[in-house]
Amino acid sequence: MLKALLRRVPQGERDDAVREIIAGIGDNGVLDVGLSTSIYAELSDDTARQIFQDRLLDLLESGKAEPAVAVTAQENSIGHQLVQAVAQRLHGLACRLQHTPDADIVVSMAEVLPKQLSRLSTSEIDPAKDCMMKCGNLLLFLRSASLQAIEEETFDGLFGAVILLLGSSDKAVCVGAREVLVGLSGVASYMTLDRHNLVWLCLQKLIAQQSSPYHQMLGYSIWLRWVRTSDTELHHLFDATYWELLQHGLRFGDTECRKMCLAILRRSVTVAANTDASMASIFSAHDGSTGREAVIAQYERFCTVCETMLLGRYLNQILDCEQDLSFVASSASIVKAEWLYTLLASVLHPKMQDANRKFVGNWVIRCEFQPNASEDFVAFLRSAFLPWAVQGSLFTSTLRKGTSPRCGHGDRLAQYFRSLLTRNASNSVLSSQLIDLVLDVLSARRSFAYANVYLLEGLARAHDEERTLEFDIEQAEKVAALSSWTALPEVAQDYVFVRSLKLCGDNLFRTTEGLRKDAVAKAVTRWNQIQAMLDRFPNEPLPAGSIASWSVEPSNRDIRENAALDWCHELRNDMRSAATLDIDMVHTKLLEIWELEYLEYPKTLLLAFPSILLNPMLVELGTASTDLGKTVADLVSKLQALTANRVYLMWPLVCVIRLATMTVPSAAGLLNLESVISSYAESLPGPTVDLRLEDAAAKMLQSVVPALEVFSYDYYFGPRETIGAAALLDLASRLGKTEPEILVSLLNTILDRWASQSTSPSTGSSSKSTLQLQLAVLCCEQVLPHLDVEHALKRLHHILSIENLPRHRYLLGWIVARIYLKRNGLKIKLITDLTSKDHHSNPKYLAAIMKICVMLAQVEGATADFALQLATAMIPLAASSKVIIRHEAQWQFPSLMRIARSKGWQELTHNVAFTALDEHIRSLERFEQPPLERLLDRFDPVKDHTLTNLVEGSWYGLDTTQAPLCRRADFVELYRRDAQTTGDWPAPCIPLGPPVVLPEEVEAVTTMVAAETSLPDNPGSALGQIQSIESRALQTKGTAYTASADMQDGRKRAMHAQLIMVASLVDNPYNLGGLSRVSEVFGASELLVQNQRVTSNKDFQATAVSSHLHLPLVELSSPDIAPYLTSKRNEGWAIVGIEQTDRSVVLGSEQCKLPQQIVLVVGSEKEGIPALVLSECDMLVEIPQHGVTRSLNVQTAAAIVLYEYSRQHSATSTGK
Q: Which helix (H) or strand (E) holds 1060?
């Protein structure tokens, strides 16, 4: 049509008409595309074609690219010319932007390019905004244009332009420049080594822009695409800077940057492995014997570890890659150590998840990490490892209680540096660098206080063991300076003081260079003086106070504290003679001494003050003087409040309160004794984290030299708080005769609180404590004559019906049994409760009543009639539909029959029904292997009614909520101290009793509870081993147990021992409860879980419905699953996983024949079974599905597979 129109135009006017048409292109939208392609064919001279090209170029600059794209698609020649023109125009615009002051250029790239590529080619200066917009539009066109056939001059123009534009603030321009640059990189004929070097310089400049994260990421994204298009020239760029930039991106980049760096690394290693010259840049020990494939494979392994540890979100995935991490760090690894340092430093960065950081940091310590002896290793320790390792939370979270308190992280950190120093002692350069590293951290005095203690301990151990280690002059001076460190807690200061002095003294025997420094010479002298004092002890007393204060002039605060101590001694001497004692004088001195309040309660004075304040003579004066008595009571209240954060004050305070109460009859009223006991019962103070750290530091101080053994916890803080707890319980056990009203009120307060709790109380509550029930035991033993016993029993029965925590139920049963023992006529209520159908809705309550009844049947004075009623009531309970009721009756009935035989109660022993049931229960296999809780909660109301059992009986092992507050040894020590006093005190209401002798398996549990340790690292630890015999049921639920004769034979029972369920990858308590339920229902021999304490979780209990009481739960941490499966396979077990993979067989199909002896593994809720565990599986099964969801809840999937297993092997055992 255009041709037809032009033929109507006169020949002389045709050129003008064409020019008018060309000028109008761009104004008509879609019509311009067809018009442009048509008119180009009618252009007969170069001038017209140039005009057309200029018009298209103008349109491109304004953002109207459709006509140009259409023409270039039809006519290659105009396309080539247009690209050439665009390149020239783009280069001019880019150069103008570089030379325009108001242009928004973030990164100036002109200095990267040769002058001819960045030189301004015209004097025309467009506004910067217009230039930037035009550049963006032109780049948009070039991204769709073919650049393969361009001339070198055009290539140079484009190359220079896009590099200049990469520094623009306009992100669209940057993206366009990146895409064009990547396209140019694929033009192999022009991408010479020089141009590759220019690209590399450009990338370095972009990545170096710390103030512009976008341009940094732009640099990495170009780098990634660049290495994918360049092979032959890339290996020439493999210098140190190349790899350092990658390491920097991995360490400090975000997730996207790290992903790109790993992709770049993979590609770069593939290229570098092609030649021996570049191989050295990734494998420093390359000798030509290592193949290219091995190098690539090991770096691929390293990249996989990086992806898991840096990009993964789940700790279990990181745990699973520990084996690969260990290999990369081993001597067999080809990967250069710098990459390993980069990885570890990246994971240890504060922005990473704490759990991941903790895993990597502990791995470094555990494997005594040191891949080489380079400065890079020391730099890694300084910049990445130590900033993590000295965090206070790592020390406080790994504290262990007990007679030998330790800080787990601190001990491991000290051992790691000891190992590093001794291992490298022969390398004087590295050992000196390591010593400098430790001393620099200590000298900075900015780390957590106790981190310095353990670092110094590691340095000192190495110095003690390796005599070739010695300090140079500067190092010795730094060590000596540590002795003047005063801003530390008392014991920590003494440790640093003694250790640093001893180090200076020991170093003197290896080199005398340090004596040229006055500080070192003074330190050696002071150490010699301290040794002399220690040698003279105990013949001569040691100076008072901490070791660091022995040779230091006292401060004003010390002087005031010493003055207050002198007043204490004076007041104690004055009170030896009542005749000359002036009440007003005593009152005044007490108030003067209490000025310690302004001294921030110094420890020494606090420990001395209670014995003065509650001296029996002063207490008697207080009862005679209202003012003095009020002051005494007020100060006692203040001291008790102080014990909350100063637990070392509890033992002297409670002991003197006990002494005053036993000695002075009116002291209980003066001191408001009920309030004192109630306050401690509600919240008994425990050692603070700081005190526990001091306790651990005292242990280390004692180990410096044998003469320092005297500087124990007792030296600094006095006896432990357990003496105070024992004194509190002993006081309560003696008040029945003198102050029964206090015990009645205390008991009512405790019972009211426990009875008013919700019907489903939480197992742990700040308003409930074991101590409260221990006090209730003591109260009930003394005040029954003063109580409405039936009302008290009603409340106790109610509490017993709603309480969940096993140890609390044990103590409640103790109290109830003792009351019925003393009120024999009320026992009929127990039989009534057992025969009442109303109570079947509360199985735990009926189970507790059965236990109590059997307890009472065994005591002296029990009658055959009561036992007969009990046995009659237990017969239907043994067949109850409630699992808990049925099992409790089956466990208790044989015990009742044993008692009947021992007492000669023929009414029971000659009863055919009773003996038949007894024989049947005893014939059950599991009766001979009682579950652990049956060993722990045994109680004889007479023989076990002792203080020793009350405070450290085996019942503490029923759960792990709290360690014993005190032990028998504390009462023995308390009574030893009592021998030094005079007076006729009331005897305790409960005898002390013999030491508790525990079975071996029970001892392991109660020891772990006492230490309050965290979950064991290995499944073979004490608790994990013990749980394998715990909670076995006598029978399974319902009538299916006796459905057919084949279910009764030994073959069926043996089958139960051939199925193990591994659920250690599952962390949801609700799902674990369901897995417990289905595992017990289908006869699994045990269930392996990550954390056995999950049984106390309410979600677990809701779905488990007590199944965990009849199925052993064994702890197996997720890192140990693979080794565990390997060991079970070696024993002949088949490992079967429930997972959907290419090699899975469909459950129920002919191919799915489940072995009879199997370990069944279920995966986590989100990730399934990890690769490492999958590799251990002999067989994988998947459940046939027809819906869209393609997944089942883990407990549902496990139940289906367990049923299929049971179906297959039940059929086999019956011959079907």
A: strand 1059-1062
